[in-house]
Amino acid sequence: MTPSEPLTSDDRSYVITFSCPDRTGIVASIAGFLTEAGGWITEAAYHTDPATGWFFTRQVVRADSIPYAVDELRQRFAGVAAGLSEQATWQVTDTGETKRVVLLVTTEGHCLHDLLGRATSGELPGRISAVIGNNPALRGVVEAHGLPFSHVPFPGPGVGGAARAAAFDELAAQVDAHDPHAIVLARFMQIVPPKLCAAWAGRAINIHHSFLPSFVGARPYHQAHARGVKLIGATCHYVTADLDAGPIIEQDVIRIDHGDTVHDMVRLGRDAEKLVLARGLRWHLEDRVLVQGNKTMVFA
Amino acid sequence: MTPSEPLTSDDRSYVITFSCPDRTGIVASIAGFLTEAGGWITEAAYHTDPATGWFFTRQVVRADSIPYAVDELRQRFAGVAAGLSEQATWQVTDTGETKRVVLLVTTEGHCLHDLLGRATSGELPGRISAVIGNNPALRGVVEAHGLPFSHVPFPGPGVGGAARAAAFDELAAQVDAHDPHAIVLARFMQIVPPKLCAAWAGRAINIHHSFLPSFVGARPYHQAHARGVKLIGATCHYVTADLDAGPIIEQDVIRIDHGDTVHDMVRLGRDAEKLVLARGLRWHLEDRVLVQGNKTMVFA
Amino acid sequence: MTPSEPLTSDDRSYVITFSCPDRTGIVASIAGFLTEAGGWITEAAYHTDPATGWFFTRQVVRADSIPYAVDELRQRFAGVAAGLSEQATWQVTDTGETKRVVLLVTTEGHCLHDLLGRATSGELPGRISAVIGNNPALRGVVEAHGLPFSHVPFPGPGVGGAARAAAFDELAAQVDAHDPHAIVLARFMQIVPPKLCAAWAGRAINIHHSFLPSFVGARPYHQAHARGVKLIGATCHYVTADLDAGPIIEQDVIRIDHGDTVHDMVRLGRDAEKLVLARGLRWHLEDRVLVQGNKTMVFA
Amino acid sequence: MTPSEPLTSDDRSYVITFSCPDRTGIVASIAGFLTEAGGWITEAAYHTDPATGWFFTRQVVRADSIPYAVDELRQRFAGVAAGLSEQATWQVTDTGETKRVVLLVTTEGHCLHDLLGRATSGELPGRISAVIGNNPALRGVVEAHGLPFSHVPFPGPGVGGAARAAAFDELAAQVDAHDPHAIVLARFMQIVPPKLCAAWAGRAINIHHSFLPSFVGARPYHQAHARGVKLIGATCHYVTADLDAGPIIEQDVIRIDHGDTVHDMVRLGRDAEKLVLARGLRWHLEDRVLVQGNKTMVFA
């Protein structure tokens, strides 16, 4: 039994992610730029995708090793990026700026409980700005953690069209008011309309309770039980207009056996869902996930 | 995305656990008794330990299939057990009686958060009667869940003897007032004195943050980091007077690599600790864990 | 470093598997019968499937505890089974009788190498009677292990009808000459015709290199790479006329990342394929796998 | 079922590994050098160890992108390394040069079978030059694979001193004749003397059948059974004069339960041993393992 450990770091850093069509000299160019600035690199990862010929990198530099502010770093790095490729995609984030997370929930609380516990324990690399439910069931536990809960009522299944669109408009307005870095569908039981998928592209994260692409859509544990699989899983993915088909961030499985009913699978699967969502969200907030097409590069 | 599933079962059952030196006819005798009573067996597991020659079984019978009350079942089963062996150890529990759990904590909240979340989600096969801390740090989250929190102050490290004994007396009095089926040391930073280990034998459960028997004692993640292991783990075990050496209920590991600092290991290890404790506690509360000497039979 | 351990047991046992619609008294009836015979039960497992209401059991009895021969045990047990249900399905096998295994291969040797190594190390609960290839590539390694290899040529892809049927007739004749307990498709690159699937029902075992039901059919690793999954898997299942859809015996997965090409996945996946096939085959040969409909009960 | 895939790559590469005390500009310096040479980097990994302040990198460059031979690359890179630090440790290897592996065995063949199967399947990034046994038991399977087997007799346990030293001298002479990149103790039942540990430092790899540091020394499965652990493991490590305490390359575990005897654990553990050794050996041969003190950096 050991005493409690602090898990946060006071080491403020700049995180650079960059991608462009591969060519020689990219690493040298970026490393040369950082060296010239006196940058102390604490993490660096590279990947070239042979299928597309694109190069991806993520670099972490100690903020106190750069003699100017992050805005100037961005401005100067823009020049480096432009010199490497017109198609370059990049960003520079400052770990000193706390990321904002909005959670969307319905009635199942296990992922919410898990994320609230992590936030309280200082494990989340970000701050939960708000929790929004299309059902008021989880208000209590959210407010008990001192966080705002908002209930946006949705029409029942089968009721559609205008009422549903209006509910989503209200939801989007409330979400967007926080300008969040991540919008987490923590077992949110609504299919996000294409317009919102587009607006939240690369920021909306869903947890699906199957090992995708197995058991897309509704009631995946029932599907898994019917098929007689020996493992069940969970998948954390970016939300796209194509249901349960967005870029996969993280997956994991747990073993079941013939003695497990659908209810057992639901209960056991929750542990996989919680872990997979927590890992995927962490990597997203730490700018470790780069997306190209329907695939992710995860520099974990 | 599927609608929420109820995870609890209204099926009240009687759980029979029994052990004695192995001989022929034990299964027939127990099964014959249950059949005569009209008992509908929904789960049955058996094990004979070749080393000791003891036989162990756990049987679950639907309560509504037995035409008399649980007390009479116990009375009648006592006769069966006596007929099989004078050394027989057995119990009959009624799932209709909710098990009581007391949690002991200090300042690290991840296991507490996890168990509170499971209790709120209806996943715990029991009820948290109270949380007792030797530090007040976790009072807020406990009371936010509507549960009583009690602070029993302990003397600082190095201060000992009478003050520590008095604190443990107060702790024991508060714990015993709940007559708990499980006393969970959820990262409780005190070494339980032998007298209490004896009083709570088979009911006190600890979560140790290493893959025992590696890294017994203090600061196991530091020990693991120093040794350069590639996996770290957690162990859920019954508390005995021999530190970190009690019967192991459950263990699991997670992969780390050279890039993980001790702080990373602390953070990553928490997920293993939470899962291992939750599984071990569930099995204990469901009477799935039989102990002989320093080993457990887990009929999971 | 320890000295070599013998892994085989001289303990000859009878393995009873039995299933019928559930009712009270089944366990008592079987246990009573065995007790009367003096049977020493060393393993026993039970399962009732709530969906179908069927009961399944597997029991292992020491052969030397039964005072008569296995044929008489079968004869007497037939009476017990008939008394329990007209629909009862059961068998009694004698571990003293070595199970016969025929392997079907094409050119990929990893599963073959693995099974040959296990057979040589005394780990296989059976004997490899023959290896039959539709390609001669793997003849050398088979004969080096002192086992017979037979090449049954098949027409190329696209060539069909009569030539393919004739090749399968020849293959079936060679397989059936061994009256095997297991016919293992160890990366055998032919789709077995429905007639043979029926003739070999419950004995033909395939290893599919994906986590079924994901990526049914050809080139599953290519499919997995295209979808960007984070885990790949393997599935061991009984062969049925419905391609890759037979009852699943065992599954497992391994983690991959964005840096793994399809070729890496093929290489990494082989370890999952080898392990999953070896486990599934072991359980099949030890009569641990009971099948009902499209599901298996695995009393592992 | 898919056709066989080629798993080897014709892409010849140069692998640069480099370490020195950390300072700014290392990445820029190496990347600048490679860019100037026209080098096409296909893999790059970095790590700085906060405890020691050392920096480690591994870089893979396409051989056909460098306009001169590997010897000249080494000569030029020596200048870069010298410019960065007097303490720099580095090497440049050419994947066009096949690595040589010598296996040492006794009587247990499972790791040998596994490595022979991988070599035959083209999965090993190297060539098995010879297998040497202190027991002739495994000669047959080695020669069946067309590889040389040599028997170097050792004195029995308890017999020591001069006879054992002479046997090790003979063993060393035979091993060293191959100038191997890896000497694999594939369940070799002799404790290597300190002189040989020193001579083979960084090249001799052992597989220990426990999750080190648990159960050091003899009969680890017996130790694990006695302790009642719920997982058993295997550890691949570099051999040092300190028994079972060398730098750990790779570890893994498998789940067991109370029903598993020591013999079951021996059998089940073999799968962990095979996989862990195969992974560790692969990484070693691909120059992915950098060692500092008693720890490894594995750029897997």
Which secondary structure elements does this structure contain, and how are they paired or packed?
Four copies of one chain form a homotetramer.
Chain A: E1 13-21, H1 26-36, E2 41-49, E3 54-62, H2 70-84, E4 89-94, E5 100-105, H3 110-120, E6 127-133, H4 139-144, E7 149-151, H5 161-176, E8 182-185, H6 194-199, E9 204-208, H7 220-227, E10 231-238, E11 248-255, H8 262-285, E12 289-292, E13 295-298
Parallel strand pairs in A: 5-6, 5-8, 6-7, 8-9
Antiparallel strand pairs in A: 1-3, 1-4, 2-3, 9-10, 10-11, 12-13
Helix pairs in contact in A: 1-2, 3-8
Description of the molecule:
The structure is a homotetramer of 300-residue chains. With 300 residues, chain A is of the alpha/beta class. The first copy, chain A, has helices spanning 26-36, 70-84, 110-120, 139-144, 161-176, 194-199, 220-227, 262-285, and strands spanning 13-21, 41-49, 54-62, 89-94, 100-105, 127-133, 149-151, 182-185, 204-208, 231-238, 248-255, 289-292, 295-298. Chain A has a seven-stranded mixed β-sheet, sandwiched between helices. The first copy, chain A, has a four-stranded antiparallel β-sheet with strand order 2-3-1-4, covered by helices on one side. The interface between A and B is large, with 46 and 46 residues.
Structural features:
homotetramer; Rossmann fold; 8 helices; Alpha-Beta Plaits; globular; seven-stranded mixed sheet; 2 domains
What's the quick description here?
Chain A has 8 helices and 13 strands. With about 300 residues, the first copy, chain A, is α/β, with parallel strands linked by helices.
